[in-house]
Write a structure and sequence with these properties.
The complex is a heterodimer. Chain A is an alpha/beta fold. Chain A contains 8 helices and 10 strands. Classes of the chains: A alpha/beta, B mainly alpha. Chains A and B meet through β5 and α3 of A and α7 and α8 of B. Chain A: Pfam families: ABC_tran.
């Protein structure tokens, strides 16, 4: 894999149904780091992620990679829902990207990734026979199979119970280390466990807070003192953001 | 005890029929008792079998051609805005014309042979197949399409690997309806003018007051339709093993 670049968001504006979602929004997402994005529901986090992924076009402004090469084809996207195809086995779901691009699927690599997420034995199971946590792990393996330098994640673990969530966070931190990751989350603990830098998006038009930095490499222990202090600061920022 | 309930229903129906024929004042040429119909089924088995095969062939060919045509029309409607603008009104208007009224015209155009009946069956099933399949193709979950876009999928790859399989349960619903109603088209075609087929037997027997034979033909037609439906339904359930609404019942 190439060296993952950072992402430059420049002068982004977007209007939606008479509401100004973004107006001249600019920021940078650091290369090869986990960046967590928090903020109240409906503020435009998902829209921002979709614009970066190329799924939506802004009114003005744009998104670029810090290495100036085009972003297209270098991004893997993982949504809140797993979006596994119900007619395909876990293994075939992991290799979906290759199937869709007409590339030769690599079952050994896909199986290896499924083993990494602890689902080697379920490679041939259909998604509907798997639990929510297992399905999300298949989606993580599918994201990793794409082997893209940039990974965008939109509340990928929010539907999981807290223990499963902690485990899959560890897995994500380990398997995505070294890539440029932008993670949307509603869970301050998740942001503090995984993020190198934390941003809060709030207001209309939406603005980004000054980033909070969490010391130590992810995944951090949930009872780590520095983590708990950052989580406190984050809660203050979120509360201020929610105030009218 | 699968099948116990349908069997009971059938036996109760037979018993009521027998009672009505035996104890009411309805004459046998209007309502023959089940025994007479059974006798007609047996003694006329050669005639009935030959004509059943004709009607079955019409139904199957009508189903095949109608499904193919409906499938192609659905793809056209969904992927070409021009086709949608031109084809949709035609489709809707076509449903406003009673198919029954077209049967004599089809016979006039295509003769007394099988073609007119196959076209009648096609006309009957075209709309449910097209409407259901087009609906299924339009309702692909947007999340799957977004995912495919981030994977650099071409529109054709998205169609083949995501939209088509995702639309199969809706297509199956259309095909089930089509299987149940295709015999109607074939029989109406035979009534309008034919030299063979179960519909032809029924008309002939009716004219000669061979009511038992008419009932026998009717019985075979009903059994054929049910058997065809069950077969198609089983096949679709097996093919769509992954679709949640086909695993139960």
């Amino acid at each position: 894999m190439e060296t993952p670049p950072g992402i430059l968001v420049r002068d982004l504006s977007l209007h939606f149904g008479g509401v100004t979602v973004f107006e001249g929004l600019s920021f940078e997402i650091a290369a090869q780091k986990f960046t967590a994005l928090l903020g109240p529901s409906g503020v435009g986090k998902t829209t921002l992620l979709r614009i970066i992924a190329g799924l939506e076009a802004p009114a003005t402004g744009g998104v670029a990679a810090t290495d100036r090469a085009p972003l297209a084809g270098r991004i893997a996207y993982m949504a809140q829902q797993d979006f596994l195809l119900p007619w395909a086995s876990a293994l075939r779901n992991v290799m979906l990207g290759a199937t869709l691009r007409g590339a030769r699927p690599e079952p050994e690599r896909a199986l290896h990734l499924l083993e990494r997420v602890g689902l080697g034995a379920q490679a041939h199971a259909l998604p509907q026979t798997l639990s929510g946590g297992m399905r999300q792990r298949v989606a993580l393996a599918r994201t990793l199979y794409e082997d893209r330098p940039i990974v965008l994640m939109d509340e990928p673990f929010s539907a999981l119970d807290s223990i499963t969530r902690l485990k899959i966070q560890n897995l994500a931190a380990e398997l995505l280390a070294g890539r440029t990751v932008l993670l949307i989350t509603h869970d301050p603990l998740e942001a503090c466990r995984l993020g190198h830098a934390l941003f809060v998006l709030s207001g209309a038009p939406a603005r980004l807070s000054e980033p909070l930095h969490v010391p130590g490499p992810p995944p951090r222990a949930a009872d780590d003192i520095a983590l708990l202090q950052t989580q406190g600061a984050l809660m203050r920022t979120l509360t201020e953001a929610a105030a009218p | 005890m699968r099948g116990a309930r349908p069997a009971t229903t059938f036996l109760v129906f037979l018993a009521l029929w027998w009672l009505a024929a035996r104890y009411s004042s309805v004459p046998p040429f209007m309502l023959p008792p089940p025994g007479d119909v059974a006798v007609a089924l047996w003694t006329q088995r050669g005639l009935l079998l030959a004509n059943t095969l004709v009607t079955l062939a019409e139904i199957l060919l009508g189903l095949l051609c109608g499904t193919l045509l409906g499938g192609i029309a659905a793809l056209g409607i969904v992927f070409s805005p021009v086709l949608q603008r031109w084809l949709m009104p035609v489709l809707v208007v076509s449903q406003a014309i009673p198919v029954f009224a077209l049967a004599p015209l089809m016979v006039l155009w295509f003769g007394f042979g099988m073609v007119a009946k196959i076209i009648m069956a096609m006309l009957v099933i075209f709309f449910p197949v097209t409407a259901n399949f087009a609906d299924g193709l339009r309702r692909t979950p947007p999340g799957w399409l977004d995912l495919a876009r981030t994977m650099n999928a071409s529109p054709y790859a998205m169609l083949r690997h995501i939209r088509l399989p995702a639309a199969l349960p809706a297509f199956a619903s259309g095909l089930r309806v089509a299987t149940a109603i295709a015999p109607i088209g074939a029989i109406i075609g035979e009534w309008a003018g034919a030299s063979s087929g179960l519909g032809y037997i029924m008309l002939n027997a009716n004219a000669r007051i061979q009511t038992a034979l008419m009932f026998a033909a009717l019985f075979i037609l009903a059994a054929l339709t049910v058997a065809l439906y069950v077969l198609v339904d089983r096949l679709l359930r097996r093919l769509l093993y992954w679709a949640p609404d086909t695993t139960g019942g």
